[in-house]
Design brief:
The protein is α/β, with parallel strands linked by helices. The chain folds into 2 domains: about 1-130, no CATH class; about 145-380, Spore Coat Polysaccharide Biosynthesis Protein SpsA, Chain A. It has helices at about 1-35, 40-65, 70-100, 105-130, 160-170, 190-200, 215-225, 245-255, 275-295, 310-320, 325-335, 360-380; strands at about 145-150, 175-185, 205-210, 230-235, 260-265, 270-275, 305-310, 340-345, 350. The strands form 2 sheets. Strands 3-2-1-4-7-5-8 form a 7-stranded mixed beta sheet, with helices on both faces. Helix 3 (about 70-100) runs antiparallel to helix 4 and helix 9 packs parallel to helix 12 (about 360-380). The longest helix has about 35 residues, at about 1-35. The radius of gyration is 27 Å and the shape is elongated.
Length: about 375
């Protein structure tokens, strides 16, 4: 019983220990700044308070709450807000207790310390450092080595050829793989074509729903229906040939990465059929914005050919909020925030003349998604409740 009590109160005890070290840091630097640096008391008080907050932030993140989020700036801002509110609470409580209720100032300080310490602990536990855990069920034994997810929307002209090419590759490479075609509410006969092929292609499965939600939603649906040790999603037009799966898997193994993504913008990449000039320009400008505001070390976030370890894919997509074209960059942002290693791999790529990408409209949508993702990162919506 005593052990259980200690276990339940241990985080609070650790928080108190960290608070004690913070108080020591605060007082020590206050003394040094005033006595040796000859700083004005208010200036010294402010600096020493900030240093104490930094000390408490680091220790509480690493030790008390063991928060794994990599977004230090956002966490620190929230921690600072809690601390400043605590400071205001201290002043308010001391004023009420000493000047209104006429409590002895030392007793007032003791009562105030307990109130503020409790506020700080629960404020940081519930808001600052609370990491929302996603329970991802991973089978002990995988039925397939690979799950290949193909999102499709009104793809009656291209889906048959793509699925046959993937099936041929699976047979030639002797892979243990399933193909999951996800119909994203198509209005043409995409579903009928897939159903017909399912009788000819082993382990071809169809996921479908009536309303169109977007490519990101379709990929997420496919990911959660997957039973393979590795999950690949690729475009319905086969713009990145399925044979590039080999390159991604080799790069993943060589770099001990959990994610491998195809890239059109590396020196070794080979764009066999180029896009029209205006689309290249729009794509490069969009990529520049993504690198400036979200991910600075990935050259091509939007290539629709990405390979994940099973558990990693399901964890990442469980946080997904973007349903349309911006889902790629969101998935990579979440992956980096969770500490997963991503390797970018040069691939062959063929532009499809039948692409339904609407340059202006879809670019504006992606820009909106970029801003939305950035706001979610700043506000902590992905990992904190």
């Amino acid at each position: 019983m005593i052990k259980n009590i200690i276990k339940n109160f241990w985080p609070f005890i650790k928080y108190c220990i960290v608070g004690a070290t913070g108080t020591f840091v605060d007082l020590a630097f206050l003394y040094i700044f005033v006595e040796y640096a000859a700083l004005p008391v208010l200036t010294a008080t402010t600096i020493s308070f900030v240093l104490a907050v930094i000390n408490n932030f680091i220790l509480n993140k690493i030790w008390t709450f063991q928060n794994k989020s990599k977004n230090y700036r956002k966490l620190f801002i929230k921690f600072l807000i809690v601390s400043v509110i605590g400071l205001g609470l201290t002043l308010g409580c001391m004023y009420i207790l000493v000047h209104i209720l006429i409590v002895w100032y030392m007793l007032a300080k003791l009562i105030t310390s307990i109130i503020v310490l409790t506020w700080n602990f629960f404020g940081n536990k519930i808001w600052t450092f609370r990491l929302r855990e996603k329970i991802v069920e991973v089978p002990e034994n995988f039925i397939f080595e690979y799950s290949i997810v193909i999102p499709a929307y009104n793809e009656s002209n291209r889906i048959k050829n793509t699925l046959l090419l993937i099936d041929n590759y699976i047979k030639e490479a002797n892979l243990n793989a399933e193909i999951i075609a996800v119909d994203d509410g198509s209005k043409d006969n995409t579903v009928q074509i897939i159903k017909t092929l399912a009788s000819k292609i082993p382990n071809l499965k169809l996921e479908t729903y009536s309303k169109n939600h977007g490519k990101g939603f379709a990929v997420k649906t496919g990911v959660f229906a997957s039973k393979g040790k590795y999950i690949l999603f690729a475009d319905a037009d086969n713009s990145t040939p399925i044979q590039e799966l080999e390159s991604l898997k080799e790069a993943m193994d060589k770099n001990s990465a959990q994610i491998a993504i195809g890239s059109r913008y590396l020196n070794e990449s080979k764009v066999q059929i180029k896009q029209p000039g205006y689309r290249i320009l729009i794509g490069r400008l969009g990529n520049l914005l993504i690198r400036l505001f979200l991910i600075d070390d990935i050259k091509d976030t939007q290539c629709g050919f990405k390979l994940f370890e099973h558990r990693v894919a399901k964890e990442i997509f469980s946080f997904q909020k973007v349903k349309r074209f911006g889902f790629d960059m969101e998935a990579l942002v979440v992956a980096k925030s969770l500490g997963y290693k991503i390797v970018e791999v040069p691939v062959n790529w063929f532009n499809s003349v039948e692409s339904r990408l609407r340059p202006v409209r879809d670019s504006l949508t992606t820009l909106k998604d970029l801003i939305y993702i950035k706001i979610n990162l700043w506000s902590g919506r992905y990992f904190q409740e």
